[in-house]
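>> received
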Amino acid sequence: MTETHPGEFDAKAFLKTLTQRPGIYKMLDEKGEIIYIGKAKNLKNRVSSYFRSQNASPKQQAMVAKVAGIEVTVTHTEGEALLLESQQIKRHKPRYNISLRDDKSYPYVFISSFHDFPQLTFHRGAKKRRGKYFGPYPSASAVKETLKLLQKIFPVRQCEDSYYSARSRPCLQHQIERCTAPCVGLVSKEQYANDVENTILFLEGQGGLLIDRLVGKMETAAAQLEFEQAAAYRDQIARLRAVLEKHCVEGEKGDVDIVACAAKNGVACVQVFFIRNGQHLGNRQFFPKVGDENQPEEILQAFIAQYYLDKTVPHELIVSHALPESALVAEVLAEQAKHAVAIANNVRGERMKWLQMAMTNADSALNARLADRQGLQGRFISLQQELGCDITPSRLECFDISHTQGEQTVASCVVFDREGPVKSDYRRFNIDGITAGDDYAAIHQAVFRRFSRLKNGEHPAPDILLIDGGKGQVAEAEKALAELEINDVMIVGVAKGPDRKAGMEKIILVGNRQPLDVTPGASALLLIQQIRDEAHRFAITGHRQRRGKVNKQSVLEDIAGLGPKRRQVLLKQFGGLQGVSSAGVDALASIDGISRQLAQRIYDTFHHQDGH
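>> returned
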């Protein structure tokens, strides 16, 4: 690796040291922060072009003016350079790069292979369990819709193992004919295995073969005068045909992703349509960070290189624009996927219809985004005007506190930038070591902990820190920042107005005796309400989760004679703590291991607490 240090950058001297081999280069500003990462087949030629070009774009000129140092990493091939560039951009998200903001893992449909009666379920994360995985699907809702459809056609159990093993009688799913109740032995292994095999055939895109098999079975049953069974096959075939008509892509048998891009006014939308085993699993939209001058083809190339770094690569990508380096990208993806990958943009027939659909969706989502962004930009400008800021704020953080009579206190911190919520930067803090109900101490602790991490470089500083509260809370936030020697963040309190009515909030500024006189109808108030409500929602959700964990543990743990195993059995049998609390003594005593006396103690615990 070659490196120059931030400071006065001597481009001529540096260029003389460069190799002509492939690799990546990182441009650094005077603070040593990476502002751009690029790859090159010939490092010397590529980096030199930035400093010798007479026709550089305004963006390139602005970037080069900030360069105080360059780091170079040499690779064996241009393909290695492309892969390394994509990894580094995704990790560092430099200011001048096209970068993808997509941190979510994608869900799958999973069929286990380690059960006597396999389970069909939703899966996200590492593929550690033995079985078959189908996907990826674009969203959790797409998986849930598929599972719901499958349950209507193939009665394979979708319950959790804990629920399955605790059953002593069939559940509601059996009663509505969505499960054959293997938990209580109402179906043979052979018959159940047949349902599992049919489910796998469907998920593998073998719907036509599956229908042929079911038609054969229907005809056999009818010939043997088993008319009820024949009617059941007939209904199953009808449901299967309806699903296949809705989800199958004509002429497709394998795995294809259709990727379309639309870009305008410095905003881009990429739509991905997922086709697996000839079935359309759904689509998803992305809004990568781009510049005003980036064209759809270069946005697509950057998106594809970054997006498929850690995901399953299909055998073919159909793209809306020809990639600048299509062959190189295909080569790198094939190396990663361990199979050939084709990238095409000139398609016909049914494929062209799907590509046009993806492009229409990308355009529609982009226009909606631009409209939202324009409204949000106006709110940020209004906030600048109302608060008297020198520049338009670009990052806001808001804190809120939630507790029940001082117990299980949780503080939330939510973040907004000029494009809306930045959910990856949201944080919650479990507040301990304070007097119950002391909101001032809670705000102090949360702000101190959050901004301690800022000083360690874990996240950027906000321009404005919003506190859900009045002068007391604002004063505590100010103290916390002073202790950390942070004095360049504006603190704004948002106190509830009369009757907590929206739009009547009082805006508190440090050093001002009276609340700020906000212009009536100013859109800044809408922005403040939006971020305050989001902080409130996020805090309440965290508090409920914390309270739920404590309640689940403490209430049952205090009952003499009720050990960990019996507690688990109770919670499973009654579907949670609420079910246990509403159960009568007879119902509690019907559980194995729960005596009449213990059931009475459990009942008395809950009803004494409720004041009954």
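>> The longest helix spans residues 349-387.
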